[in-house]
Design a protein that fits this description.
The complex is a heterodimer of chains A (536) and B (500). Chain A is α/β, with parallel strands linked by helices and 536 residues long. Helix content of chain A is 48%, strand content 17%. Chain A has 2 domains: 174 residues, MutS, DNA mismatch repair protein, Chain A, domain 3, CATH 1.10.1420; 216 residues, P-loop containing nucleotide triphosphate hydrolases (Rossmann fold), CATH 3.40.50. Chain A starts with 20 loop residues before the first helix and ends with a helix. In chain B, the strands form 3 sheets. In chain B, strands 7-8-9-5-10-11 form a 6-stranded mixed β-sheet, with helices on both faces. A 3-stranded antiparallel β-sheet of chain B has the order 4-3-6, covered by helices on one side. The interface between A and B is large, with 78 and 72 residues.
Chain lengths: 536, 500
C-alpha cells in the first residue's frame, strides 16, 4: 500500500540529496523556514489562528524533504498540485496528520519497538501482533472515511490516486473478509468489536478443525486448517454440574476425548490453538507490514504538506507576496519582487524585493557597496531555488526558472575558524569537494569566497577557479570583494552575453536602495561611505 | 572411487591440511575467510579447504567442476540435493531418538523415501543441465549407476507402495466445546482457500505444536491408537520392509555429499559477496605470467563490509621472466594487505575456485608458502631473530621448486646491514629454486638486489595521505604554482583535466 504523495511513482527515500546540506542550511539560513514549518497555524475557522504550537517533527520532515531536490517539471507540478489541494482543504490535511500520529503513538504503546530478541515469537508477541492488526485495520478505515468525506474538494493527481488505491485496498469484499478474520480470531484476544448476546457475560470459544497426515513418524504433520471460528456463548460455570455431566458423557463416545479433568489434553489443546492462531495471523503479516509502512510514510509525507501550509501561513501573516513558481527552460531565470524569505520573516516583512530577468546568464558577478543587499540577494536566489525544487511556494510575485540537478553554496564561514588547517585551506578543501560532486547542470552560489587571504592572492585563485568552472558551463552567482578579479573578468568577458555584472544600487546622494542593477565593477566598495554613515 | 575433488580419486595425503592447519592459513587470514565460507556447513566440509589438489591435473579438474557448479541449473540441482541430504539426516536423527519401534519404522520409511526422491531429482536435473566438466559428468554417471542397481529398484518399489498408503492416511481433528473429536478422512480445504484468496502473499506453514518433541503427545497417542486398530495390514508390511532392507545408502555417496558441499559453500558465499558488489572471477590458469586487476584482500573486505568501508583494489603483474615482487613503502600503506591478497589469489586459484579480483591469470604453482613476522613469542623466551630463522628453516630446507612465496618483513630486529644481507640471500635462494612470490619489506635496497625483481611501492597522495594503492615504482613529484591550489587540484589546468 503506497502513499506516493511526494512522488508520483515512489515512496520517500533520501536518495540524491544536496551535497553538504547542513552547510547549505547554515549558509541560506533555512533553519528559520524549518521552524516556520513546525509552527502549527492551521486555519481552524475563516480566520487564521496562530497558536504557535510547535511540532518539531514537521520541521524535521521539511528539512529532510527539502534536502532532496526534484529533478523535473512533472515532479514539481505533482507536488504543487497537492500543495494547492492542501491549501484548500487544510482541515483535511490536519486530520490526516492527527490520525497517523495517533496511530503510531498507539502502536508504540503496544510495544512496537520493544522487541527484544528473546521475546520474539512467544505467545505474548502474538497477542500484541493481533492487537496491532486491529489497530492498523481500524486506522485504514478511518483514513478511508476521511477521504470519502473530503474527496469532493480534491483535484490533485496525488490525492485522487491515493483515494483510488485506498478504495481498492479496502473494497467492500475485502473489508468483509477482514472483518470475518478478525472475528474468527477474537477468541484469542478480543479484537472483534461489539458482540450482541442477550446475557451480560459472554465467553468466546474456538472451533478449530484440522486435517493432518501421519508421515512424520506417526506424529501429526502436514496440517491443514479446515475451519477456524469463534463461537460466542453466554457464560456458564466450567466447574458447575452441567459441565461435569457433559464432560463425563462425551468421553464415552468413540473417537471423542473430553478435556474435562485431563490436564495433558488441555495443554495439547492450548498448543494447537496457539499454532492455529499464529498460522492464521501469518496470512495477515504482510498486510500488517504493508499498512504499517503506509502509516509511517503517510505520517512523514503529510507532515511535509502540513509544513508547507504552515510556511505559507507565515508568509501570509507578514504580508510577503508568494506564488507557485513556474518551470522554465534550462538557463532561464526571471523573477518579480523576489524577497529573501528568511530575513523577511525574521524582520516582520519589511524587506525590499528584486526584479529581473537573467535568462541565459551563466555567470553573474555581484559587486558593490557593503551592506547593500548583495548577500541577501544571493540568498534569495538560493532559497527560492531550493523551495522551488521541493514543490513549495516562493516569496515573489512571479518566479520562473530552469531546474538544476544540484545546488552548492560556497560562503565564507567566519565561524569555522576553529579548523585545524588554515581558513584558506579549509575554503579550498570545500571547493575541491564541490568540484568533485558537481554532476550535470549545477548551480553554484559563492559569497565572498577566497577572501580569507590577501586580495591579490584571492583574486588569482578566484580567477583560476571561476574561469575553469565557467568554461565547464556551471551556472554561478558570485558575490565578491575581490575587485582585481572582478575587473580582470570584466575585461575578459564584457562582450559575452552569458556573463552579467551586477552591483548594489547606490544613489547619487549616497543612499542605498538594496536593489541589484547591472553595473561594471568598480575599484571601491564604498566602505568609506559606510564608515562615514556609521561613525561620521 | 569417484571423486569431485580429484580426477584419479586419490586425494593428496601429504597435503598440509592432513596434518594441521597450515601456517599460511593464519598468515593470509584464510582462517577468517573460511570461517565465513563454511559457516553452517560443518567441520567435514571445512577440512576439505585445507588440502590442495595433488597435482596440476587435479587443479584443472576442480576448476572445471566449479565452472559447472556456478551454472544456474547445476547450482539449483546441487542446492536442492544438499537440502534433501540434510532433511534425510534430520529424519535419521529423529528415527534414532524415537521411543517406540513402530515410530522408528515409520521414520525409516520416510528416510528411504527422501533418499530416493533426492537421487531421482538430482539425476533428472543433472541430465537437463549442460555439463562441460569431466567431474560433473562423472557425477551424473555415478548417480545413474546408483539408481539403476537392481536391489535398489526393488527396495524403491516396495517403499513407494508403503509410502503411498501412509500418505493417504488423513486425520480430521475437531476441537470445540472442550473436547476433541477424531475421525479418519480428508477435509474440503475451504478455509485454506478462503485465506489464500483473500490474503495473498507469503504465509507461514501451519506447524504442528508437537513436531519438536520425540515422544507422542497425549493427543497423538489417541490418534495412533485409532489407526493401529484400523490398519493392521499396513503396519505388518512396514515391519517386513524394515527387516528386508536394513540398509539403503549407496557406497561412495557419503564422501560425495561433503564434496558437493565444498563447491556449494563457496558458490553461495561468492554469490552473496557479489551481490554486495565484490568482484570474483575464474582465473585463467594456463598462463605463464601472473596478472590481476581489481585484486583485493577478501578478509579485509569481510571486516570492512560490516563497518561500511570500502576496500582499495589493486593490480598485479609479474611477467614470465620476472621472479619476485619486492614491495616497499610507508607504514600502514597497505603493504601487508597487498601481500595477503596475492597469497589469497594463489590459494583460491590452486583450490580450483574463483578468486577475489576483476580479472586474473594465475600460473600453476607447486605450493604456497608464507612467512609473516610475529610479535616476539614470550613463552619461549627466544630472541625474535632466532625465532624467525627457525621458522624460516623448514621453508629453506625443503625442495621448494616452483612454489609461490609470500614473505612479510623479515629480520626487523637485526642490524640494517645484516638484514639486507640476509634478505638478499633468502631472495637468491628462492629465485634459484624457481619460486615466485612477493617480499614485503622496509629495506629499499632489496628492490634492486637482483635482476628479475620487480620493485613495487605503496603510493601516497599529494598531501602525503595514504592511498593504499600499490604501483610499480617510478615516482616523480610535480610542483604547482600556488601550493595550496595545486594541493586541492584546483588550478586552472588541473580543473580542466578534472572536467575532461
Amino acid at each position: 500500500m503506497n502513499v506516493h504523495l511526494l512522488y508520483a511513482d515512489r515512496e520517500w527515500t533520501s536518495a540524491k540529496s544536496y551535497f553538504d546540506w547542513s552547510g547549505m542550511t547554515k549558509d541560506l539560513g533555512l533553519k528559520t523556514l524549518f521552524r516556520c514549518a513546525s509552527l502549527d497555524s492551521i486555519v481552524r475557522s475563516s480566520r487564521a489562528v496562530y497558536t504557535e504550537q510547535e511540532d518539531p517533527f514537521l520541521g524535521q520532515t521539511m528539512r529532510r524533504v527539502m534536502r532532496v531536490p526534484l529533478q523535473n517539471e512533472e515532479e514539481i507540478r505533482y507536488r504543487q498540485e497537492i500543495v494547492k489541494d492542501c491549501l484548500r482543504k487544510q482541515g483535511f490535511v490536519d486530520s490526516l496528520y492527527r490520525i497517523s500520529c495517533k496511530l503510531l503513538e498507539d502502536w508504540e504503546a503496544l510495544g512496537r519497538k520493544s522487541t527484544t530478541a528473546g521475546e520474539r515469537d512467544t505467545k505474548a508477541k502474538l497477542l500484541m501482533d493481533l492487537q496491532v492488526l486491529k489497530l492498523l485495520v481500524d486506522g485504514m478505515l478511518e483514513v478511508q472515511a476521511l477521504f470519502l468525506e473530503n474527496i469532493e474538494g480534491l483535484s490533485s493527481e496525488g490525492f485522487l490516486n491515493l483515494f483510488d488505491r485506498i478504495q481498492e485496498e479496502l473494497s467492500e469484499e475485502r473489508t468483509a473478509s477482514l472483518n470475518t478474520l478478525l472475528q474468527s480470531l477474537s477468541f484469542y484476544v478480543d479484537i472483534s468489536g461489539h458482540t450482541t448476546v442477550r446475557s451480560d457475560y459472554v465467553v468466546r470459544l474456538p472451533r478449530i478443525r484440522v486435517d493432518c497426515s501421519l508421515t512424520n513418524g506417526l506424529k501429526i504433520g502436514d496440517l491443514k486448517l479446515e475451519s477456524f471460528e469463534t463461537v460466542v456463548k453466554p457464560y456458564s460455570n466450567p466447574y458447575g454440574l452441567r459441565a461435569r455431566m457433559y464432560g463425563k458423557l462425551t468421553s464415552l463416545a468413540p473417537g471423542v476425548i473430553s478435556l474435562y479433568n485431563d490436564q495433558a489434553m488441555r495443554e495439547d489443546a492450548g498448543e494447537l490453538e496457539y499454532q492455529a492462531v499464529s498460522y492464521v495471523y501469518s496470512y495477515c503479516s504482510s498486510l500488517v507490514a504493508s499498512f504499517g509502512q503506509f502509516f509511517d510514510q503517510l505520517h512523514f509525507q503529510i507532515a511535509f504538506y502540513l509544513g508547507a501550509i504552515n510556511i505559507r501561513s507565515q508568509m501570509q501573516r507578514f504580508k510577503i507576496d508568494h506564488c507557485f513558481p513556474e518551470v522554465g527552460q534550462p538557463g532561464e531565470l526571471a523573477y518579480k519582487e523576489l524577497k529573501e524569505v528568511v530575513m523577511s520573516i525574521e524582520q516582520g516583512g519589511k524587506t525590499v524585493g528584486n526584479s529581473g530577468s537573467l535568462d541565459g546568464r551563466q555567470l553573474v558577478i555581484i559587486t558593490g557597496a557593503n551592506q547593500g543587499g548583495k548577500s541577501t540577494f544571493l540568498r534569495s536566489i538560493g532559497i527560492a531555488q531550493v523551495m522551488f525544487q521541493s514543490g513549495l511556494m516562493v516569496a515573489a510575485l512571479s518566479y520562473r526558472a530552469g531546474l538544476h540537478t544540484s545546488l552548492f553554496t560556497h560562503f565564507t564561514r567566519r565561524e569555522d575558524s576553529a579548523m585545524n588547517s588554515g581558513r584558506l585551506d579549509e575554503e579550498l578543501r570545500r571547493m575541491d569537494q564541490i568540484v568533485s560532486n558537481l554532476g550535470e547542470d549545477p548551480l553554484l552560489l559563492l559569497n565572498e569566497s577566497f577572501a580569507t587571504t590577501t586580495e591579490k592572492e584571492g583574486s588569482a585563485i578566484a580567477y583560476d577557479i571561476i574561469r575553469a568552472l565557467k568554461e565547464e558551463g556551471v551556472r554561478i552567482f558570485m558575490v565578491t570583494h575581490l575587485l582585481s578579479f572582478a575587473q580582470q573578468m570584466y575585461a575578459d568577458t564584457k562582450e559575452e552575453e552569458k556573463v552579467l555584472f551586477l552591483s548594489a544600487e547606490h544613489l547619487e546622494d549616497g543612499r542605498r536602495t538594496f536593489k541589484m542593477i547591472p553595473h561594471a565593477p568598480e575599484l571601491t566598495s564604498f566602505g568609506l561611505e559606510l564608515y562615514e554613515e556609521v561613525l561620521g | 572411487m569417484f571423486s569431485l575433488l580429484s580426477k584419479t580419486g586419490n586425494l593428496r595425503e601429504d597435503g598440509p591440511g592432513n596434518v594441521e592447519i597450515p601456517v599460511f592459513f593464519t598468515d593470509l587470514n584464510l582462517d577468517q575467510i573460511l570461517e565465513r565460507v563454511t559457516e553452517g556447513w560443518g567441520e567435514d566440509v571445512r577440512k576439505l579447504y585445507l588440502n590442495f589438489p595433488a597435482d596440476r591435473e587435479d587443479e584443472e579438474y576442480r576448476r572445471a567442476v566449479y565452472g559447472d557448479v556456478k551454472k544456474e541449473g547445476v547450482l539449483s540441482a546441487l542446492t536442492e540435493y544438499y537440502a534433501s541430504i540434510r532433511q534425510r539426516r534430520n529424519v535419521a536423527e529423529r528415527r534414532e531418538k524415537a521411543y517406540e519401534e513402530l515410530q522408528q519404522q515409520v521414520w525409516y520409511l520416510r528416510e528411504t523415501y527422501t533418499y530416493a526422491a533426492a537421487l531421482d531429482t538430482l539425476y533428472e536435473k543433472l541430465n537437463a543441465a549442460e555439463l562441460s566438466s569431466e567431474g560433473m559428468k562423472g557425477l551424473a554417471a555415478f548417480v545413474k549407476s546408483c539408481i539403476s542397481e537392481d536391489s535398489y529398484r526393488e527396495m524403491k518399489e516396495e517403499m513407494l507402495k508403503l509410502w503411498t498408503e501412509l500418505s493417504s492416511f488423513r486425520v480430521l481433528l475437531t476441537y470445540e466445546k472442550e473436547r476433541f473429536t477424531l475421525s479418519e478422512g480428508k477435509g474440503e480445504g475451504e478455509f485454506e482457500a478462503f485465506l489464500a484468496e483473500n490474503f495473498p502473499g507469503q504465509s507461514r506453514e501451519f506447524k504442528s505444536p508437537f513436531l519438536d518433541i520425540e515422544y507422542f503427545s497425549k493427543l497423538e497417542e489417541e490418534i495412533v491408537k485409532l489407526f493401529r486398530k484400523k490398519h493392521k495390514g499396513f503396519f505388518k508390511s512396514l515391519r517386513d520392509f524394515c527387516t528386508a532392507y536394513p540398509e539403503y545408502l549407496h557406497e561412495g555417496l557419503g564422501p560425495l555429499e561433503n564434496e558437493i558441499a565444498f563447491y556449494l559453500s563457496y558458490a553461495k558465499f561468492q554469490r552473496k559477496m557479489q551481490e554486495k558488489g565484490f568482484a570474483f572471477c575464474a582465473p585463467g590458469a594456463s598462463a605463464d605470467k601472473l596478472s590481476a586487476t581489481g585484486l583485493y584482500d577478501l578478509a579485509l573486505a569481510l571486516v570492512n563490509m560490516e563497518a561500511g568501508k570500502e576496500v582499495v583494489p589493486n593490480e598485479a603483474y609479474l611477467a614470465a621472466d620476472e621472479d619476485f615482487f619486492v614491495l616497499t613503502g610507508p607504514n600502514q600503506g597497505g603493504k601487508t594487505t597487498y601481500g595477503r591478497s596475492l597469497g589469497q589469489l594463489v590459494y583460491f586459484s590452486k583450490m580450483g575456485l574463483d578468486v577475489p579480483a576483476d580479472t586474473a591469470q594465475v600460473p600453476y604453482y607447486r605450493n604456497l608458502w608464507t612467512h609473516f613476522s610475529v610479535e616476539e613469542s614470550a613463552e619461549t623466551g627466544r630472541g625474535k631473530l632466532m625465532d624467525e630463522l627457525e621458522r624460516l628453516k623448514p621453508i629453506m630446507d625443503k625442495e621448494q621448486n616452483g612454489a609461490f612465496v609470500v614473505i612479510n618483513e623479515l629480520f626487523t630486529t637485526a642490524a640494517n646491514f645484516d638484514a639486507i644481507e640476509m634478505g638478499k640471500r633468502v631472495l637468491e635462494y628462492l629465485i634459484k629454486q624457481q619460486c615466485k612470490g612477493i617480499y614485503v619489506t622496509h629495506l629499499e635496497e632489496l628492490s634492486t638486489a637482483y635482476e628479475g625483481i620487480v620493485s613495487l611501492r605503496a603510493t601516497v597522495g599529494k598531501d602525503h595521505e595514504l592511498t593504499y594503492h600499490i604501483e610499480r615504482s617510478s615516482v616523480t613529484q610535480s610542483t604547482g604554482t600556488n601550493r595550496q591550489l595545486v594541493k586541492y587540484r584546483l588550478s586552472y589546468e588541473q580543473l580542466k583535466e578534472r572536467f575532461a
